[in-house]
Amino acid sequence: MSLMATQSKSQFLTDVHAQLKRRYKPKPDRSAGRLSVLEAVVYGICHEDVTREQANQALSRFKDQYFDWNEVRVSPIAEVQEALADIPDAQGRAERIRRFLRQLFSKTYGFSLEPLTKKPLKEALKVLHVYEAFSSDYVTATVIQQALGGHAIPIDSATRRALERLGISDSDLPSLRSILERAVPKNRGVEFLELLEELAHDTCVEPCPDCPRCELRKICAYALERKSEANHPAQANQSAVKAAPTKAAAEAEKPAKKIAKEAAKERPSAAPAPTPTATPAAAPTPTAKKPPAKQPPPPPKSPPGKRGTDK
After folding, report:
1. Are 119 and 31 within 8 A, CB to CB?
2. Arithmetic mean of pLDDT, 194-216
3. Is the residue at 258 inside a domain?
């Protein structure tokens, strides 16, 4: 569907924010900069496509179970993976975290990126984008929001799904994030994101959202469409009704075709035209013998003493 104008979009997302606050209790406002740049990178890797609670617990385990980040850098992947516990794709995330720490150490011989917080945002990002972890837009937005003091709203697949159902979409992820950042003020960005994540992991789930239990069902494009289909089943099933006669006719033809096929099997098939082949000569048929022709009767014999003829 077409995107709304910026002003309408802002008002719509303001309504979304207000209604989500009625459903979910907002967490205390967390100001940007509560994490170091390094911690924000690790947090972003842990948080993408999982709940905020899972990401917070994973970051806490790294801080509690390891002496410092250098110990994480030199640990086997299996040990780093244990800190991620039940987070999906724990091995892949562990490899990304350790790779980032090794790249950071090879470039700076340390584990501090805090001087970047004093640079302009664009300069800081230019420095950070040499690290492989920043190929993820979600990690980049998380670091901007949580460590560099900028305005960014990280979007993963779960929050993107919820936004698209609400009617806010874009084929390009950074462009979609820009839409939100223009419509949602910086001072409400963190709270809005947390409420949107609550929605995405509570009712707006895959494969089928729980629309009747959702606080946004009266303004959500997806929920309104489902309600319209439920209230007008004839319109929703119009195409199915049109296709029904054709399908019924096809089903009706099946028994007749089956009977005809079976009958064809039972009928003796027409003898094929004989193929000219060399055949043995037929034995001559015996013919009936003709009876002998009748001989004319012999002439009568002359009486005795009258032999010859008178002269």
Report:
1. no
2. 94
3. no
* Alpha carbons 156 and 158: distance in angstroms, whole number: 6
Query: In Å, how far from its chain's centre is CA 100?
Result: 30
In degrees and rounded to multiples of 5, residue 293 shows phi and psi of -65, 145
The answer to whether the CB of 39 falls within 8 A of the CB of 148 is no
Where are the alpha helices (H) located in 24-109, listed in sequence order?
Answer: 37-47, 52-65, 69-74, 77-84, 90-108
| Together in a domain, 114 and 222 | no
Per-residue pLDDT reduced to its tens digit, 220-255: 999 999 888 877 765 545 544 444 444 444 555 555
Name the nearest CA neighbour of 194 among 250, 252, 146: 146
Cα–Cα distance, 217 to 208 (Å, whole number): 14
Tens digit of pLDDT for each residue in 24-78?
977 665 544 489 999 999 999 999 999 999 999 999 999 999 999 999 999 999 9
- Cβ contacts of residue 87 below 8 Å, gap of 6+? 46, 50, 54, 55, 58, 93
- Residue identified by tokens 């724990």 is 90
C-alpha 188/C-alpha 185 separation (Å) is: 6
Asked if 128 and 134 count as a contact pair (C-beta separation under 8 A), the reply is yes
Q: Which of 114, 149, 184 is the last residue of a domain?
A: 149
Query: In this structure, what token pair is assigned to residue 65?
Result: 């179970």
Residue 23 belongs to domain spanning: 1-29+174-233
Letter for the amino acid at 26? P
Residue 167 φ then ψ, to 5°: 110, 10
Whether 23 and 66 share a structural domain: no
Tracing tokens 């609400």 back to the chain, one arrives at 166
Q: Which residue has the higher pLDDT, 95 or 292?
A: 95
What is residue 94's predicted lDDT score, i.e. its pLDDT?
97
Quick count: other Cβ atoms within 10 Å of Cβ 260?
10
Q: Residue 235 and residue 176: Cα distance in Å, rounded? A: 33
